[in-house]
Amino acid sequence: MPSTFLPESVYLYVPMDILRLMTNNFRIFRKCALIALLVLTPLISDLAQPALLDAAQHNSSSSHPASSADLERSIRAEMDFLASDALRGRGSATPDERSAAEYAAKQFAAMGLSPGGENGGYLQTLALPNPLPKMAQYVLQNLDHSPRTATTNVIAILRGSDLKLRNQVVLLTAHIDHLGMAAVRSGDFIYNGANDDASGCIAVLELARALTSGKPPRRTVVFALFGSEELGGFGNAGFLAHPPVPLGSIVANIEFEMIGWPDAAVPAGDLWLTGYNRSTLGAELAEHGAALVADPHTDENFFQRSDNYALAKSGIIAHTISSFGLQPMYHHPNDDIAHIDFALMTHAILSMEGPVSWLANTEWSPTWNPNDRP
Questions:
Q1: Which CATH number fits the domain that encloses residue 213?
Q2: Quick check: 189 and 164 in contact, CB under 8 A?
Q3: Chain centroid to CA 248: how far?
Q4: Phi, psi torsion values for 260, nearest 5 degrees
Q5: pTM of the prediction?
Q6: Residue 49 counted as domain residue
Q7: 54: helix, coil or strand?
Q8: What distance in Å separates the CA atoms of residue 104 and residue 57, rounded to the nearest whole number?
Q9: Interatomic CA distance for residues 127 and 238, integer angstroms
Q10: What domain count does the chain have?
């Protein structure tokens, strides 16, 4: 989620627990060795990222995991790539954001999903305004000064099977970018964005696997990972300007953001939905098994602080699912793999499989509650 303030400090860099990873198997040892080289030498990073991407793709199965343990292994493999130092924080509108997008595109292709991007592919490239708006410049002032000229969305489509419902669309989204690297290269200068929002991207990828592992849903499902959310939502703006499906066909949008940390403000294992009382979507998903409650942090205006808001202002029923408990790692370099609660992520994704599948197969559609449409 974007913020009006920047990280206040840069923490001492503590490497990932490479020794633990090395004990798993030789393949992971080779991957960790490569990551170490990428961190030490940006030139090597530029040359070796395609190989790392292919290794991560190989480690992540295109079929849906058969158990909670299998799902957690898949989540860890995806997190090991998306939040690795090798991707240098997936800075908005950088080549690292693009590398993350290409990785997700390969995942969607392996699932057999139809491309929803440009030129028959999964990627949607969008030019950023020049000069950037003042708020975007403010966000970037203490970050790496690389040029930011274009951002990348990833879009995949699972066509509905019911002639009556296939023109109705469920849209599942997250944002694939994060802050990137600090301008001052000392200590831990990489903002890995493990929770914000690699966790949400992984939720979308895993829900795509779940929906493609069985009978196709009756409704069409679009999976979109937006670029440059942290700079002010340029990815979602490009999606709205060049949608892969008519915007009027989208019956609901669920954004996933920061589901890798528990929130003590809600019961253990629960997720919360921004703007819960604005529409009928949250209550109906909860009725069908989603561990969803209302956002306990209404004073933070989270409904307006994620990609869903632009879609909601366009008339789409759009909310964000999260478990962000205002933890101090937010927008700091220690939002890294070491701080992810993988058991929570696994539970969160599993808990949404049934409700999302129901939404993709029902004839019911959510509506705004009176006077609550943005």
A1: 3.40.630.10
A2: no
A3: 24
A4: -100, 0
A5: 0.85
A6: no
A7: helix
A8: 9
A9: 9
A10: 1
